[in-house]
Amino acid sequence: MKVAVYPGSFDPITNGHIDILNKTSKLFDKIIVSVVHNVTKNALFSLEERVEMIKESTNHMDNIEVDSFNGLLSNYLQEKQAIAIIRGLRTVSDFEYEMHMSMMNKMLIPEVDTIFIMSDSKNIYVSSSGIKEAALLGGDISSLVPKAVNMRLGEKIKKND
Fold it and tell me: For the site Transition state stabilizer, which positions are given (predicted)?
């Protein structure tokens, strides 16, 4: 079975992430969307909320599993018997950053390759941080995120007011 891991903070998942999953779900038997607990980022949504939003947003794809992890990606990849890491690219600066991460991962776990997938041009400017900022300032982000995320962002904003 060809298993790939799509790691990220997904705070929150966007239509750009869904685009990457739609493209790569045709290439692998199973994709594990793995929510990373990143201690250096201040998350708006809890780990559990992010996992739930991803599950709701990907329930139309049969070969998607959602999980979370702490620690080194290479250890997680071995545990899941993954053959690839999926990374979405929007810009040249994304590629520079991802290339360095890919090289480090290749050194740690040589049998796993990183697959770079370009985001659709309509998603080039979409980022989780931009979505959060726009939503918190009252912007309409409904066309940029799955319905489940739009709903939860609205609830989170009302709760914080």
Answer: 17
